[in-house]
Amino acid sequence: MKKTVLCSVAFALVLGFAATSALAAAADVVTYPAAKAPMGKVIFNHKAHSTKLGDCAKCHEGTPAKIAMNKEAAHGKACLDCHKAMKQGPAKCAECHKK
Ligand code: HEC
Ligand code: HEC
Ligand code: HEC
After folding, report:
1. Ligand 1 atom closest to Cα of 50?
2. Which pLDDT does position 36 carry in this prediction?
3. Distance 40 CA to ligand 3 centre (A)
4. Is 97 touching ligand 2 by the criterion CB < 6 Å?
5. Residue 59's pLDDT is what?
6. Residue 26's pLDDT band (boundaries 50, 70, 90)?
7. Residues 6+ apart with CB under 8 A from 25
8. How far, in Å, from the CA of 90 to the mean position of ligand 2?
9. Which atom in ligand 2 lies closest to the alpha carbon of residue 67?
């Protein structure tokens, strides 16, 4: 009996792990703290961007995975370059940084 319970638990864990990996999706909304600077946090709506842009490759090279973020990336090709190029999305400080 004890063995059966343990087996079920292990099985559930494996299933759970498989499901998580298969769905390794980004959170709908990511908040970048930008807390060290007095700029205020930046909210990135991954879901809205994906839907609007329709193509993961607009931001991801190869298999979509986590994109490292810092000031240089954000103010360059990870965020701002695209807003400028498309003339859509915020380009002013306070439109991205919210206190
Ligand atoms: C506008 C740019 C953009 C588009 C379009 C986009 N992503 Fe992302 N994606 C990002 C950024 C930025 C991150 C990093 C978010 C974070 O820090 O968790 C990310 C993270 C991810 C992650 C990693 C999540 C994690 O925490 O490990 C996955 C998976 C992912 N995206 C899948 C996709 C898929 C699939 C699509 C297409 C349907 C897509 N993305 C479209 C910008 C984008
Ligand atoms: C490949 C192009 C592209 C990239 C890369 C991109 N954006 Fe955008 N973003 C857009 C477009 C297009 C809109 C306008 C969407 C609309 O008005 O429906 C937008 C809108 C926004 C908005 C206002 C609407 C909202 O979702 O609140 C914010 C804030 C924003 N982007 C932040 C970011 C941040 C932060 C990053 C980097 C992590 C980023 N964007 C990367 C194309 C991009
Ligand atoms: C397209 C959105 C966007 C715009 C426009 C933007 N930023 Fe940022 N900024 C970001 C993101 C995203 C980060 C990364 C935050 C992090 O790494 O947690 C960032 C980081 C920073 C940081 C570093 C914060 C830290 O603690 O390391 C400073 C300072 C900053 N921005 C100032 C500005 C100023 C000043 C402007 C206007 C000239 C501006 N930003 C415009 C999105 C934006």
Report:
1. 5
2. 67
3. 9
4. no
5. 96
6. confident
7. none
8. 7
9. 38
Q: Nearest 10 degrees: CA dihedral of 31, 25, 75, 97?
A: -20
Which of 40, 41, 60 has its CA nearest to residue 50?
A: 60
Check: CB of residue 31 under 8 Å from CB of residue 42: yes
Tell me the pLDDT tens digit for each residue of 28-51. Answer: 999 998 766 688 999 999 999 999
Cα separation, 12 vs 16, whole angstroms: 6
Chain position carrying tokens 């059966």: 4
| Residues written for the chain | 99
Tokens of 9: 């638990």
The amino acid at residue 39 is M
Q: Which amino acid is at 32?
A: Y
**Distance between start and end Cα atoms, the chain:** 56
